[in-house]
Amino acid sequence: HRLAVLSDGSLLGLDMLATSRGIDLMLRTELVDPRRIGMYGLSQGGLAAMFLPAIDLRIKASISSAYFNARLAKLIGPHRATCYLDCHEEDKFLSQLIPCFGDPDIVSLIAPRAFAVEAGVQDTSVDFEKARIAFQQAKIHYDRLGIPQRIELIGHEEGHICATGRAFAFLNARLAD
Length: 177
Fold this sequence. Notes:
There is one protein chain. By secondary structure, this protein is α/β, with parallel strands linked by helices. The chain is 43% helix and 13% strand. It has 7 helices and 4 strands; from the N terminus they run ααβαβααβαβα. The chain has helices at residues 2-6, 11-27, 44-55, 71-76, 103-108, 128-144, 164-176, and strands at residues 38-42, 61-65, 114-120, 151-156. It has a 4-stranded parallel β-sheet with strand order 1-2-3-4, sandwiched between helices. Helix 3 links the parallel strand 1 (38-42) and strand 2 (61-65).
């Protein structure tokens, strides 16, 4: 991350570029239907599953698992779960983005394409209640567009894990639209 910052970039930017190029490669095969590209990521992958669809319109549906949150509180506190100020993950401080855009704002850039938040009640990284409140803010964009079925909160009782059954059901339904 520090090397990316020295060149006026970010680790997030490099991740987004690499993942988008991965989609380019997949689309070169006959096995991938370009109308049915979905994304599902956990934790750091959840970050990617929220940011990449905001900039890459080829992604028709995505699920951010164990990442979506009240971003400013997650960065500096107060936060029930560990905040980034108390750990070593410098790459999470997106200083030019965070003052202007929270997670619900990033999701507004995904709409009208499908998006789901997956969060566990016992997750020690994501405050479930704050994620639920932020989800309601993101859902407003879909409600105003008349497409509330394209956004979903997939809550579960576990911790920092995927709840794959419901998540894949969401992806299958939304990629079939």
